[in-house]
Specification:
Number of helices: 9
Order of helices and strands: EEEEHHEHEHEHHEHHEH
CATH superfamily: Alpha/Beta hydrolase fold, catalytic domain
Number of domains: 1
CATH class: Alpha Beta
Distance between the termini: 31 Å
CATH architecture: 3-Layer(aba) Sandwich
Largest sheet: 6 strands, mixed
Shape: globular
Structural class: alpha/beta
CATH topology: Rossmann fold
């Protein structure tokens, strides 16, 4: 690993590292905030997954999360959203290819060579963090939009791996969203049965672990209004099987980081309660 950024923040350090990913077959960046408590003890980790077009930079610059991470003694890891490089397949639009990994393991060419973000997030990156930083194996996960989808799916598919999960404006039912249909067709193929393991609204119907879901959704979110996010489908699926879901509709808030910054303190406190048990 190579540390490429190192900045003091709220008594701790906001760093960015570059490393070679075997899972993705390329060089990747991730951001890590080490609160002041990390100088003397190992701490739990909150993984943050960002949305379409984002890199590791968006969250660490815009969310204001460092203050709350320092208050609660939680490391925050924010990876890039896709494999990147001149030899990495890319799409024509912002919602396919680089910057749009969608946190799945692609099975279709040309994506299948590098686009294995699901394995990177859930296996390779945590192993790297826990081997090289003062981090315990206590993990939580959160994210925004495409990253909210990734957080929900990762938690639902990996019982016992995460102690808590939350999401901001997640793509809750990608099989019923224009984004999900486009990306799943490209990355996973035409067979919709291969899509179900990456759809949170499908997973809540069958998973055995009942890890509570915390979801915040802005009512003025343009993508919510366009029915690209579909929290209504997730609510109906959770209600049908009694799955524990807290869906908070927030009047006036849109899809931007103004929304995330307004509630990130509550989310980090929520995760800290689970992580410090």
């Amino acid at each position: 690993m190579e540390r490429i950024e190192h900045r003091a923040s709220f008594g701790g350090w906001q760093d960015v590292y570059r490393h070679e990913s075997k899972v993705l077959g390329c060089t990747m960046n991730f951001a890590i905030y080490l609160p002041p408590q990390a100088q003397r003890e190992k701490l739990p980790v909150l993984y943050w997954l960002s949305g379409l077009t984002c890199t590791e930079q968006n969250f660490i610059i815009k969310a204001g999360a460092q203050r709350y991470a320092a208050e609660h003694g939680v490391i925050i890891v924010a990876p890039d959203t896709s494999p990147r490089g001149n030899d990495i397949a890319d799409g024509d639009g912002y919602d396919l290819g680089q910057g749009a990994g969608f946190y799945v393991n692609a099975t279709q060419q040309p994506w299948s060579q590098h686009y294995h973000m699901y394995d990177y997030i859930n296996d390779e990156l945590p192993a790297l963090i826990e081997a090289n930083f003062p981090a315990t194996s206590a993990r939580s996960i959160s994210g925004h939009s495409m990253g909210g989808h990734g957080a929900l799916v990762s938690a639902l598919r990996n019982p016992g791996r995460y102690r808590s999960v939350s999401a901001f404006a997640p793509i809750c039912a990608p099989m019923q969203s224009p984004w999900g249909i486009k990306i799943f067709t490209a990355y996973l193929g035409e067979d919709r049965e291969t899509w179900r393991p990456y759809d949170a609204s499908e997973l809540v119907r069958s998973v055995k672990e009942r890890l509570p879901l915390l979801v915040d959704q802005g009512e003025a979110d343009e993508f919510y209004i366009e029915q690209r996010l579909r929290p209504d489908v997730l609510r109906a699926a959770a209600d049908a099987v009694g799955y524990p879901l807290t869906l908070r509709m927030q009047p006036g808030y849109d899809h931007s980081y103004y929304f995330i910054a307004s509630f990130i303190g509550e989310h980090i406190a929520y995760h800290a309660r689970a992580l410090h048990v």
